[in-house]
What we know:
By secondary structure, this protein is an alpha/beta fold. It has two domains: 3-145 and 276-288, Rossmann fold, CATH 3.40.50; 147-265, Rossmann fold (3-Layer(aba) Sandwich). 29% of the residues lie in helices and 26% in strands. It is built from eight helices and 16 strands. It has helices at 12-22, 62-78, 107-111, 147-157, 172-181, 221-232, 251-256, 277-287; strands at residues 3-7, 26-28, 30-33, 39-42, 51-55, 83-88, 120-124, 141-144, 163-166, 187-188, 191-193, 199-201, 209-217, 237-245, 260-264, 272-274. The strands form four sheets. The chain has a six-stranded parallel β-sheet with strand order 2-1-5-6-7-8, with helices on both faces. It has a six-stranded parallel β-sheet with strand order 10-9-13-14-15-16, sandwiched between helices. Strands 3-4 form a two-stranded antiparallel ribbon. It is globular, with a radius of gyration of 20 Å. The site of ribose-5-phosphate has 14 residues, from β13 and α6. Ribose-5-phosphate binds next to β13 and α6.
Amino acid sequence: MSTLILTFPATKTLAKLVAKQIKTPCEEIQVKDFPDEESYVKFKTSPKNKTVVIFNSFSRDQNNRLIETILAAGIAKDFGAKKIILAAPYFPYLRQDTHFENFDSFSIKYISPLLKNFDKILIIDPHLQRIKNIKQIGKNFEKLSANNLIAEYIKKNFKEPFTIVGPDKESRQWAQRIANLLGKQATILKKTRFTWEKVKIQSKPLGKNTIIIDDIIGTGNTILETIKVAKHHGAEKVTVIGVHGVLVGDAAKRIRKHASLITTNAIENKFSRIDVSGVIAEALGILSN
Ligand code: R5P
């Protein structure tokens, strides 16, 4: 069965890198708005009898991206694709993974069934917090990870001594696993979040050369407070590595004033130094056999 990669505009670069590795055609999906802002989606070629891999980015304008992705899956199904896979390097709505308050939305529970036309949904380092197993979100959801790539990057680019720090308990699944791969112990801090802007990070010495690792860098406030702690206790060099550089507003600028910033290209930005295309290509190789 042949494979066809179809990408929405925001993931074009990553999709092409993956297509090259699995030697498969890659086409851009046509997407435009009707005058009233409804989405219109169209493929250039037939998906019939193919494994169709749809790429989309969900780091900005998530609601529209979800709708156009749902439409693309519908087209693939109606026009005879044999298998439909979503490559979502970053997947949204995972932080609202329970009812935090009465009458608020358990968002991921409502979003995941909308993607039932996908046989597989591949996500790089999904933000799994209260839901530990991704299969609880949906049987078609699969977790991939950039942990090995980040550990390799650190091995190549950093000289000992350095310390690995996770800003909060959720970051253990990245910071500690990466530290393990480097034969180290990570320091995992405690975080209290009061509002999106106001975050408090446990204060303790973190080392002279500190690498802070987190999955999502959103407003950047978690990272900025962690940098403050590191510097307060005498850190001379601080590097921030994020899997997903969502980088809301001027987050990157604020972080770069105090530390170096590196992200993967799961969300393409000018700080993307770690290429996750191999992880997706490998998963697709296994899936399309
Ligand atoms: C939360 O648990 C995540 O791992 C990140 O720490 C969080 O999303 C970062 O958000 P912000 O950059 O807005 O502080």
